[in-house]
Design goal:
The protein is an alpha+beta fold. Helix content is about 40%, strand content about 30%. The chain has helices spanning about 5-20, 35-45, 75-85, and strands spanning about 25-35, 50-55, 65-70, 90-94. β2 (about 50-55) and β3 form a beta hairpin. It comes from Flavobacterium indicum (strain DSM 17447 / CIP 109464 / GPTSA100-9).
């Protein structure tokens, strides 16, 4: 992980801890190249967590937005998921 990414996660953790009482409902939003395997990887990362997942394909069909509403236990757990999914080629976290 590069220094810029590491600093982003440190800042995110601080903001989440200040603004949120845990456990809390958290909304993840990702843009993924429209590819069944990539979308399934994102969805599978939230298996057995009681997540509500919505997907929408772009007008051109090149990208799919994936919104995931899930109860997370703490800021570290939120960041763990972002890091886990960052390995998917072409994914954008919003």
């Amino acid at each position: 992980m590069d220094k810029k990414t590491e600093e982003f996660y440190i800042r995110l953790k601080g903001e989440l801890e200040e603004s949120t009482q845990w456990p809390s409902n958290y909304l993840y939003k990702f843009i993924v190249p429209t590819n069944k395997e990539k979308i399934e990887k994102v969805e599978n990362a939230f298996d057995n967590l009681g997540a509500v997942i919505e997907t929408h394909t772009s007008k051109t069909g090149k990208y799919t937005s994936v919104s995931i509403q899930v109860i997370m236990n703490n800021a570290d757990h939120v960041i763990e998921k972002y890091k886990e999914l960052s390995t998917i080629e072409g994914i954008i976290s919003l």
